[in-house]
Specification:
This protein has 370 residues and is mainly beta. The protein has strands at 2-5, 12-17, 23-25, 32-35, 43-52, 58-67, 71-74, 81-84, 89-92, 98-104, 113-123, 136-141, 144-150, 153-156, 161-163, 167-171, 182-188, 197-208, 235-236, 240-250, 255-264, 273-277, 285-286, 291-292, 298-301, 320-325, 336-340. The chain folds into three domains: 2-67, Immunoglobulins (Immunoglobulin-like, Sandwich), CATH 2.60.40.10; 71-208, Jelly Rolls (Sandwich), CATH 2.60.120; 235-340, Sandwich (Immunoglobulin-like). Strands 7-10-17-12-13-14 form a six-stranded antiparallel beta sheet, with no helix packed on it. The structure holds calcium ion (2 copies).
Length: 370
Amino acid sequence: MATFVNEKVSAKLQFILNKGTPITLNLDENGKFDAPLPLATTGNHTLVLTGYDIAGNFTSKTIEFVVDDTILVAPQETTGWGITTYNTIVLQKRDSFVVQGTIPVELGVEEGTRTLKFDLESNWDRSDTTAFLFDTFIVSLQNQNLFSVSETGPSYTPGLVSYDGKKVAIDLTSFPKTGSSKLVFQLLNHDGDTGSVVEIRNIENIVEEEGVVSPTFPTNPPTTPGPKLELTGLKTTENVAILFQNQKLNATTGEYTTEVQIQNNGPAISRNVVIVFANLPEGVELVNRSGIDENGNPYINLRNAIPTGGLSTGQLSAPVEVKFTNPNLVSFNFNPQILVGGLNVAPNFPTLSSFTVKPGDTLTILLSFI
Ligand SMILES: [Ca+2]
Ligand SMILES: [Ca+2]
């Protein structure tokens, strides 16, 4: 696949792949094209791109490239694509759930600091505005999410990572030197549009002997879902927002985790809150579910993430880690439904009838809450 911006729209543009038959490219109104490359084999390839003007003058560019397994696209029949060079990665998602590029990374430092730096340019397709979770780009190392940015903004640990909207700097000093560490760059799809592209350029891995490690603030680990809950009496609400963050996908095993938090934008609610994950596609399973509702959909109980007394208006829960398995890496969009219980009501004592007590006597009354 290729994308090309031709500022002076050509009269004709064509490419020849591996000395084969010329294929004409159709430009859109912006002078762009996006066409599949009919490649069936890994290894070295040559593409000659030629543009003609109306008078028949032409200019050509020869592009040498290698097709290998450093780019993972899944599920198999989808059309996402990626390109890596020694310091550049481009990922376009199209209809794929994941497009992943990996590069080897040197780790360890005798003294000073080691910092990974790269320029990030993301062009998000925002045509789907109704999804719960949007396209997300993730950088991870040793199964730890170092940095992510989605259509709704970035997420990272200050101190470990800095980001100015263009340049990302990740402090790798604390990562142990291992034999085969790879940086993993992933573009994940969770919404209904297909045009997002992320470009990572000028990747540098810099050791500074005089460098000083920045302080990082400890973050609380996410909690786990609570036990099975009686769902009768809980009600759906539109007043509670769900926030997803810190996604991780192991593209080898299909294990996918995300942290989920809720924000109560309505009247106070109790600790009895569940998120039901409806319409998960076949093969995708919510591993650490609290239970299953009457329709067969798994849910998680957020009790462990909500303080005693519930959530007042505007209050956030703690994050809960939710684990899925998706061994076939199929696309799935979250369609969560929140069920809440009303505000906890303070206990009342029953109305007591009158008692007669003589001075100096002791009266014991057993009281129970109702
Ligand atoms: Ca999108
Ligand atoms: Ca999308």
